[in-house]
Input
Amino acid sequence: MIHRGILDNAGMAVTKALHNLGYPEVNDVRIGKTLIFDAQSLDEATQISKSQTNEIMEYFEIGELNE
Output
């Protein structure tokens, strides 16, 4: 996800589009991404996440999916 305080142009465009579609109650949309991958450990998952994140502008969270 993009850090708060960083301008999210895509989120602003979606917010405006939703207003035009009749959803004036939507105040703020932020656009993020989800990566799903297999990792053998939390350390490996952290390394993969860091390699895919611009830590100046973005942050990441790691979660576990149980099938």
Remarks:
- The domain at 1-32 is CATH 3.30.1280.10 (Mth169; Chain: A ,).
- Residues 9-20 form the longest helix (12 residues).
